[in-house]
Amino acid sequence: MAVNLKTPQPESLLAVPGVRLGVAEAGIRKANRRDLTVIELAEGSRAAGVFTRNRFCAAPVQVCREHLAQDAIRALVINTGVANAGTGEEGLASARATCTALAGLLGVGEGQILPFSTGVILEPLPVDRLVAGLPQAVDDLRDDGWFAAAHAIMTTDTLAKAVSRQATIGGRTVTLTGISKGAGMIRPNMATMLGFLACDAAVSQDLLGTLVTEAADLSFNSITVDGDTSTNDSFILMATGQAGNAEITDAASADFTALREAVIEVSIALAQAIVRDGEGATKFMTIAVEGGRDREECRKVAYAVGHSPLVKTAFFASDPNLGRILAAIGYAGIEDLDASALRVWLGNPDESVLVAEQGGRAASYREEAGARIMQHAELTVRIDLARGSAAATVWTCDFSYDYVKINADYRS
Question: Which terminal residue of the chain, N or C, has fewer Cβ atoms less than 10 Å from its own Cβ?
Answer without folding.
Answer: C
